[in-house]
Specification:
Number of helices of chain A: 14
Chains: A alpha/beta, B mainly beta, C alpha/beta
Low-confidence stretches of chain B: 111-129
CATH superfamily of one domain in chain A: Metal-dependent hydrolases
Strand order of the largest sheet of chain B: 2-3-4-8
Radius of gyration of chain A: 20 Å
Largest sheet of chain B: 4 strands, antiparallel
CATH topology of one domain in chain A: TIM Barrel
Helix content of chain B: under 10%
Number of domains of chain B: 1
Oligomer: heterotrimer
Number of helices of chain B: 0
Number of strands of chain A: 8
Structural class of chain A: alpha/beta
Shape of chain A: globular
Strand content of chain B: 35-45%
Shape of chain B: globular
Order of helices and strands of chain B: EEEEEEEEEE
Helix content of chain A: 25-40%
Low-confidence stretches of chain A: none
CATH class of chain B: Mainly Beta
CATH topology of chain B: Rieske Iron-sulfur Protein
C-alpha cells in the first residue's frame, strides 16, 4: 500500500556514488597523486554486490538514460523524497573503498566520500542525513573517522557491510562501538560483501541472486555475533540497525537464540536476559526489501506477532533498489498506529541525532500526519 | 499428605544427591551445606531426568570476557539440555518467572514416629540412633 | 544409583519414525574389520585429515560431555555406541518403529585424502549394516559417500542400491562447493535413479570455508546457529542451480538444520527471483515450488517460541506434510517425542509428523 500520511523518515536511501574524479578535491595531495598516476581514478569502485545494470540495483523508472542507477540530488528529490512525503532520509553511500585491502587507501577514500556527502548532498538538501562510511577492517582508522565527523550532527549513523573481514561483534571492533555510543550514532550494517570470505559455509554460489538471498543469513550471523560477544552489555546505549535485510527471517532467530541460551548460558555468562529481549531492545531493521508473499494481506501482520515487537521496524524505500513498484512501499494489513511507529516514531527513537532541532517539529509532524490522514486515501 | 522415610541423612552428604523412588515418583534429594532439598526427577522443560544432572556452581559475569563462579554446589544442570535450576527453590535460572522444577519439602526427623517407606530402616529394634530423612508427599 | 527414567504422560499409543539417530563407534578400531589392511594402517599412522586445527577435538568445545545427554553413556564407549542401551533408553521407551541412522563421523565426507575417503565410506556403510541394521530391524542406514569424489560416490551408491537396509544417501551440506554445483550432479542422478533421497545432516566440520560469510564464530552459541544459516544457503543453491529442474524426481531431506526459516526463505527467494529471472533461465517455476515438491525437514532441534501456537503458524505455511519428527538421540539437544511440541496437534498432524510423512518418503510400510 501507499504511504497514508506525510512525514516519514526514510532510513535507507542510496545516492548516486561520486566518481573517483569527483572525490579528488577531497583527498590530500599524496592520494590525489596515487589515484591519478596509477589510473585508479578511472575505476568506479562499484561493489560486486550491486552490479549497476542488474534489475535489483535500480527500478527501471529510477535509472538514468544511460541505464545506470539514478540518484543525483534532483533524482533523489523527484523519485524518493517528494512522492512519499518524506520529511527526512538517511543516505547510505555504498562506496567500494571498503573492499580495498590497503587500509590507508580505504580510509582516505572513505573520508573523501564522507566529505563529498556532506558538501554535495547534506549542504544542498535539508531533508537529507547520512551514515559515516567506515574502513572497518582497521578499527583505529575507523575510530579516527568517527571522531573527525561526529561534530557534524547530520551524520546519524556509522556504516558497515554485512559481510566483511570478521564478524562484527568481535572485540577488535569495540573502539568503533564505544565512539558511536559516545556520540549518539547508530551502528548501521548494510547488505553487501567485501567477499574476503566465501559468502556461504560451503563456498561460492554461482549466481548473483543467490548471493543476494544469502545476505539475510549474513545478518543473522552478525546478530549472533553482537549478542554473544556481549556488545549490548558493554555498550548499553547502542542501537544496531540492519539495513536491507529482508526482515521476515527474524522470528526464527529470536526463538532459537532464547532456546540455545538456556542450555549454553555459562559459556557467555554476561548475557543476563533472554536474547530475544536484548535484541528487541537494541536492534532495528529497515523495511525494504520486505520478504513476504503476495496475496495474503495478513501475512506480515502475523510475522510481526511472531517478532513480538512493533518497535523494531524502520521505514525505508531503499531507493533506487527495486523492491516495490510505484508507491506501493508499505505492506498491507497494518493499522495506522503501527505505520506511524514505523515511519516516524521508531526512526526518531533509534537515531537520537534526528531529534536535533526536530523535537518541536516532531509535534508538528504528528499534527500534520493526523490532519493529512483525512485527505489521503 | 503423607510422610515417607526415604534415606538416611548420612547418605546424602553436603554437595551430593541421591535419587529415590517414593510411591512411583522419582525424587532427588540434595544437601547444600547441611540443609536438605528435594526435587522431582523430571525437568519441566522436556521431561529429562533432572536430578541425575551435575551439581554445579553458577557462572556469573561483570561483563564480556569476565568470568566468576558463585553459589557453589547450589545449582543443578539438566543432563539433557543443560538448563540450570536453583536446587533450593527449583527455579530455572534462565527463566525465573516461568519455569520451576517441582519441589518437595524435606525435613530431618527421627525414625520412630513415621510411616515406614520403601527404604527399610536399618534397625529392626526400636532404636533411634540415626537421623532419618523423611519426605512429605501429597496423597 | 540410577533410577530408570519414567516420563509422565500416557503410554505411547503412536509408534513413531525417528529421522535422526546417531550411532557411534566404541573405539575407532570398530571400523578396522571393515577396512583393508593398507587403510587400517593408514588410519592408525596418519588418521583422518580434516580441515580443522585440533585433532579429534572440536574448536568450539561443547557445553556438555562432548555434546551428549549425560544419561546416555553406556558402561563402556560413548553415547550411541551401545545398541542395548539405545534399545532400552530410546527405541523401546519411545515407541520407535523405525529409526534413521546418521553416522557422520569417519565416513569420508570431510576427508581430504580421497582414496582414504573412499575406503572409509565403504567401511562405514558395511559397519552400519553389520553392527546396527542386521541386529536391529527397526533401524535403517544411510549410504555415506564422499561428495567431493562424485565418481566414487556414484559407485558406492550403486553398490548399495539393491539393499533395502539403506534408505537414503548421506553427503555433507558443508562441502567444498555449494551443493547445487554441477560437480555434485552425478550423485543426484544416481540418487534419482536408485530412488533414494539425499540426506543432508548439519556438519560440524568444514569443507574449507568459514561458517559464516563474514568469518568464524567465537562461541559455540554462534556455531550452533551457523548450521541453520548454512542450511538456508544450501537450499538456495539447490534451487537456483536448477538441481530440482534437472532431477525432477530427486528428494532431499534436511536434518537438524531447523525448519521455521523455510517459509521466509521461500518468500525471499521468490521475491528476488522475480526480479532476477533472466539470470537463471533454466528455472521454470518459482523457487518456493521447488522446495515444496522436493524438500523435507526434520523437526529437531524444534523451536520453542514464547507463544507456542506461533510454531503452528509456521508449520502450516511450510506444510504439515513436509516436517518429520526426529530426536537426535543421544545428543544434548535431543527432542523427546512427547515433549517436543508445546501446543496440541490434531491426530492427523501427529500421524503425519511422527510417522506417515517419513514412511511415505522412505517407502516404509
Amino acid at each position: 500500500m501507499k504511504v497514508p500520511f506525510a512525514g516519514a523518515i526514510d532510513c535507507d536511501l542510496h545516492p548516486l556514488m561520486p566518481s573517483a574524479t569527483a572525490l579528488l578535491p577531497y583527498l590530500d595531495e599524496y592520494w590525489r597523486d596515487q589515484l591519478v598516476n596509477r589510473h585508479i581514478d578511472r575505476y568506479s569502485f562499484v561493489l560486486t554486490s550491486y552490479p549497476p545494470y542488474s534489475p535489483l540495483s535500480a527500478r527501471p523508472d529510477w535509472r538514468q538514460t544511460s541505464g545506470l542507477p539514478a540518484g543525483d540530488i534532483d533524482a533523489i528529490r523527484r523519485h524518493a523524497l517528494d512522492p512519499f512525503g518524506t520529511r527526512l532520509a538517511i543516505c547510505n553511500v555504498l562506496h567500494g573503498a571498503v573492499a580495498l585491502f590497503n587500509e590507508d587507501m580505504a580510509a582516505a577514500l572513505c573520508a573523501a566520500v564522507n566529505d563529498w556527502t556532506a558538501k554535495e548532498l547534506l549542504d544542498r538538501e535539508p531533508r537529507l542525513r547520512a551514515s559515516i562510511l567506515l574502513p572497518a577492517h582497521n578499527p583505529a582508522l575507523a575510530l579516527r573517522e568517527i571522531e573527525r565527523l561526529a561534530p557534524d550532527r547530520r551524520f546519524v549513523q556509522v556504516l558497515l557491510l554485512a559481510m566483511g573481514e570478521m564478524l562484527l561483534g568481535r572485540r577488535t571492533y569495540w573502539p568503533i562501538y564505544a565512539a558511536a555510543e559516545k556520540h549518539g550514532l547508530a551502528i548501521g550494517i548494510h547488505a553487501g560483501s567485501t567477499y574476503h570470505h566465501a559468502p556461504t559455509p560451503s563456498g561460492w554460489p554461482a549466481h548473483r541472486v543467490e548471493d543476494y538471498v544469502a545476505q539475510s543469513a549474513a545478518f543473522e550471523s552478525q546478530l549472533l555475533s553482537f549478542l554473544t560477544e556481549g556488545v549490548f552489555q558493554k555498550f548499553p546505549a547502542l542501537k544496531l540497525v540492519l539495513i536491507e535485510s529482508g526482515v521476515t527471517w527474524l522470528p526464527t532467530l529470536l526463538w532459537r537464540t532464547n532456546k540455545t541460551w538456556r542450555g549454553v548460558r555459562p559459556e557467555v555468562p554476561w548475557i543476563d536476559r533472554p536474547p530475544a529481549e536484548l535484541l528487541r531492545e537494541h536492534v532495528r531493521l529497515t523495511l525494504q526489501p520486505l520478504d513476504v508473499p503476495r496475496g495474503d494481506p495478513q501475512r506480515f501482520a502475523r510475522v510481526l506477532d511472531h517478532v513480538g515487537s512493533d518497535r523494531m521496524l524502520l521505514f525505508s524505500t531503499d531507493y533506487p533498489h527495486w523492491h516495490f513498484d510505484g508507491e506501493d512501499v508499505l505492506p498491507d494489513g497494518l493499522t495506522d498506529d503501527t505505520l506511524r511507529r514505523f515511519m516516524i516514531d521508531n526512526p526518531l527513537e533509534t537515531y537520537p541525532r534526528l531529534r536535533d532541532g526536530t523535537v518541536a517539529d516532531h509535534a508538528v509532524l504528528r499534527d500534520n500526519a493526523s490532519a493529512s490522514q483525512e485527505h489521503v486515501r | 499428605m503423607s510422610r515417607q522415610v526415604v534415606a538416611r541423612a548420612s547418605e546424602v552428604v553436603p554437595g551430593t544427591s541421591k535419587i529415590v523412588t517414593v510411591k512411583g515418583r522419582d525424587i532427588g534429594i540434595f544437601n547444600i551445606d547441611g540443609s536438605y532439598f528435594a526435587l522431582a526427577n523430571r525437568c519441566p522443560h522436556a521431561g529429562g531426568p533432572l536430578c541425575s544432572g551435575r551439581i554445579v556452581p553458577l557462572a556469573m559475569s561483570d561483563g564480556p570476557g569476565h568470568y566468576r563462579l558463585a553459589r557453589h554446589q547450589e545449582f543443578l544442570r539438566c543432563p539433557w539440555h543443560g538448563w540450570e535450576f536453583d536446587i533450593r527453590t527449583g527455579q530455572s535460572w534462565c527463566d525465573p518467572h516461568s519455569t520451576r522444577a517441582r519441589q518437595f519439602a524435606v525435613t530431618i526427623e527421627s525414625g520412630a514416629e513415621l510411616v515406614k517407606g520403601p527404604y527399610v530402616a536399618e534397625t529392626f529394634t526400636v532404636s533411634v540412633e540415626e537421623d532419618y530423612l523423611v519426605i512429605e508427599l501429597a496423597g | 544409583m540410577n533410577v530408570p527414567f519414567q516420563h509422565a504422560g500416557a503410554s505411547q499409543h503412536l509408534m513413531i519414525v525417528d529421522c535422526d539417530i546417531h550411532p557411534a563407534y566404541r573405539t575407532p578400531a570398530d571400523l578396522h574389520p571393515f577396512l583393508p589392511a593398507r587403510w587400517r594402517e593408514h588410519m592408525t599412522t596418519f588418521g583422518e585429515h580434516l580441515r580443522q586445527g585440533l585433532s579429534g577435538q572440536l574448536a568450539w568445545p561443547r557445553m556438555m560431555a562432548a555434546g551428549m545427554r549425560l544419561d546416555a553413556f553406556p558402561e563402556a564407549g560413548p553415547p550411541g555406541s551401545d545398541l542395548e542401551l539405545m534399545r532400552r533408553q530410546h527405541l523401546d521407551a519411545n515407541g520407535v518403529e523405525y529409526g534413521m541412522l546418521m553416522q557422520l563421523s569417519r565416513g569420508g565426507m570431510e576427508e581430504r585424502n580421497l582414496d582414504f575417503a573412499a575406503a572409509l565410506s565403504r567401511a562405514v556403510n558395511d559397519w552400519q549394516l553389520e553392527e546396527w541394521v542386521k541386529p536391529e530391524p527397526r533401524l535403517r542406514a544411510g549410504i555415506v559417500v564422499p561428495q567431493e569424489d562424485a565418481a566414487f560416490a556414484v559407485s558406492e551408491i550403486e553398490r548399495r542400491a539393491n539393499d533395502p537396509a539403506f534408505v537414503q544417501i548421506l553427503i555433507s551440506p558443508r562441502a567444498s562447493d555449494p551443493l547445487g554445483h554441477r560437480r555434485y550432479w552425478p550423485i543426484y542422478e544416481a540418487a534419482q535413479r536408485c530412488r533414494r533421497p539425499i540426506a543432508l545432516h548439519v556438519q560440524g566440520y568444514s569443507g574449507g570455508h568459514a561458517s559464516t560469510g563474514s568469518g568464524w564464530p567465537t562461541y559455540y552459541m554462534q556455531e550452533h546457529y551457523a548450521t541453520t544459516t548454512g542450511m538456508q544457503n544450501t537450499v538456495t543453491s539447490l534451487v537456483f542451480e536448477g538441481v530440482f529442474e534437472r532431477f525432477p524426481d530427486l528428494k532431499v531431506v534436511l536434518i537438524e538444520g531447523g525448519f521455521t526459516w523455510v517459509p521466509s526463505l521461500c518468500w525471499r527467494m521468490d521475491k528476488h527471483w522475480q526480479r532476477m529471472r533472466k539470470e537463471t533461465p533454466d528455472l521454470k517455476r518459482p523457487p518456493s515450488e521447488y522446495v515444496r515438491d522436493h524438500c523435507w525437514f526434520t523437526t529437531q532441534p524444534i523451536e520453542e517460541p514464547e507463544v507456542p501456537a506461533h510454531l503452528a503458524d509456521v508449520i502450516s505455511w511450510l506444510g504439515w506434510d513436509r516436517v518429520m519428527f526426529s530426536t537426535d538421540y543421544p545428543h544434548w539437544d535431543f527432542d523427546h517425542p512427547q515433549q517436543a511440541f508445546k501446543f496440541e496437534l490434531s491426530e492427523e498432524q501427529k500421524r503425519k509428523v511422527f510417522r506417515d510423512n517419513a514412511k511415505a518418503l522412505y517407502g516404509l510400510t
